[in-house]
Amino acid sequence: MSPSNDNIGFGTRAIHAGQIPDPTTGAVIPPVSLSTTFKQTAAGVHSGYEYSRSGNPTRHNFETAVAALEGGKYGLAFASGSSVTATILNTLHSGAHLVSVNDVYGGTYRYFTKVAVHNGVEATFVDLNDAANVKPHFKENTKLVWVESPTNPTLRIIDIRAIADYAHAHDALLVVDNTFMSPYFQNPLSLGADIVVHSVTKYINGHSDVVMGIAVTNDQAVYEKLQFMQNSMGAVPSAMDCFLARRGLMTLEVRMQRHASNAQALAEYLESNSNIEQVIYPGLPSHPNHELAKKQQRGFGGMVSFRVKGNLDNVNKFLGNLKYITLAESLGGVESLIELPCIMTHGAVSPEDRATLGITENLVRMSVGIENVEDLLADLKQALENMA
Ligand SMILES: *Cc1c(COP(=O)(O)O)cnc(C)c1O
């Protein structure tokens, strides 16, 4: 099936793109290609695969499928979302500068400030809530802009189209980390991004049992550079992980629909609850970027952040009271998870930066799962009632 065929529905692409029945046995689900090497009929004559670091059929199936869902020509899978960042950053040369949204994923911030800097690549972190803020931070040597939308954990929406136009007018590439939306709710390439990246670990795999990443692009030159780096740096996923992620991907559409309808219901409930100070969900009219979210996204996703009324003790009591909603980092799995950013995901951020970003002690981030919504509502209700 042609990955670029836009007339084919999302759910159909998620199931069929790259998924070619085994030609020898007819197996509808292609077997996992565990072999590290591939027979050549004569020296240099082969079926497209030589050695599994440079290319593997199970990985290729997954890369083809995600590319089809992002509306991209090329997909490249990596051992983690973080190794996608490392690989892209390695395509820059010493002396390059990049502009990043200020509340970028913590691991990305760490890579920019603690690793890339030693390779001579400098990053400036900018509040991009107003896209025009990118201008004063652009330099002669700015080669890349790195954006996430919605941001984490305060779920601000960045105007991807506006940032893309500015970056392109100044010869820089735009990378969008689309992990929080998944390709179901947002396609950054269609908004002008040059590369879209995902932590597959989250929604794409969706079952909290694989760590993996992917980059998708339409730009052949960018693809060739990244493919060269994928092979040279070697941070490739195993065939088994590619198989699991490919299986998870098949249900992405129905999972995302349920994540979002559950999240909307929970956000509305929390907003009406007197124990809650503030709810941050792009699907609520009270969200400051609600209109932009409606324009740029096809839905609002499964992440909800909120501020509980009370001090850290009350918040901890609330978290401890929860029965099904599990206290854990990460997101995007079928099960609901909740976490306290100031101590958990954003514990390494300095107190000053946490204050700037609005990561207060009472801010809780929830990855709403696909359980029955009544059970999630009941769990939150009893935990809030008993937190005093
Ligand atoms: C988890 C995450 C990453 C890092 O991905 P890993 O697979 O954990 O390496 C990058 N960006 C975002 C937005 C994430 O949530």
From TrEMBL:
Entry-annotated residues carrying N6-(pyridoxal phosphate)lysine: K202
Keywords in alphabetical order: Amino-acid biosynthesis, Cysteine biosynthesis, Pyridoxal phosphate
CDD domains: CGS_like
Documented EC number(s): 4.4.1.1
UniProt key word Amino-acid biosynthesis: yes
Top-level division of the source organism's lineage: Eukaryota
An individual GO BP term: cysteine biosynthetic process via cystathionine
GO molecular function: cystathionine gamma-lyase activity; pyridoxal phosphate binding
Keyword Amino-acid biosynthesis attributed: yes
UniProt protein name: cystathionine gamma-lyase
Organism: Absidia repens
